[in-house]
Amino acid sequence: MLYPLFFPLADQFQAFNLFRYITFRSGGAAVTALLISFLVGPPIIAWLRSKQANGQPIRPDGPDGHLTRKKGTPTMGGFLILLALTISTLLWADLANAYLWIVLLVTVSFGLIGFFDDYQKLHRNSHHGLSGRIKLGLEILLSASACIAVAYVTPPGLANALAVPFFKNVLVELGWFFVPFGVLVIIGASNAVNLTDGLDGLAIVPSMIAAGCFAFIAYLVGNAIFANYLQIHHVAGAGELTVFCGAMVGASLGFLWFNAPPAMVFMGDTGSLSIGAALGMISVVTKHELVLAIVGGLFVLEAVSVIVQVASYKITGRRVFRMAPLHHHFEQKGWEEPTIVIRFWIIACILAIAGLGTLKLR
What we know:
362 residues; two-stranded antiparallel sheet
């Protein structure tokens, strides 16, 4: 709203010329989202606590300490992230950008799925929420619609193609398979973040790091000069997603203030599903789906640990890990929660640096 309001006045007031710069608006979006989080966070958490007498239902088969340490903590804190992210994006971004609306609508839609899932858990006082089939069906429908929209908006030659890291001229034409591939990326990212969200602050910091990386990637991909210099594929208009990513960084940082150990609120599926879907959708638009697997490698490790655990138990009757996802394995080994969280943050930083390295190593 601020961009179309102030940028046309740049000829009369030179200061308004700042609004033409994506970097300025991205910084403004980050600060705005952070301030919104600080402002509305306490009343939202107080309201959630008043509506959730027992807090988020804790898995009875989870680590024993969770039943005592985390009991009574309210969930659905992802609503705070979505509120700050959405308002900040609408204020600072160019609302004429099609990519922006696709990513924003997917983020909010997955947040709604998570919201109803959290609501069902609270209503039943159980860690079981929406039916898995209903949940997956809605995710597939939304993701497929978004991928079709991206293919329609993206210029021919890039629309249905997959860029391969480390190779400057390699584009794999996926054809009709682009849609199911994009669906896999979006749903995979969404549920991987969801699986990682098991300890105070564990998921939000790697999400913030990944959002920061994709703010940088989106800016470079959307700028023809930088894209040509780095020999990456230029996607006209994708640079506006830098503003969205900036807002996500600010909203995540604001949420961390309340989610830091010991957490005052959990993000729940409302937050984890929407954050993961946003990262997946941005990677699809910027043609960096494979780089997301590196930047968000911590989420991949958590998801793979669950897949390996389930497959091993069904095939051999034995477990590979003491408990899955991976962070629970280390809890069972006796690691303290802050130790696990901070070490996983360090791993997320290392993987993010490696992911950004693919931009230059061609």
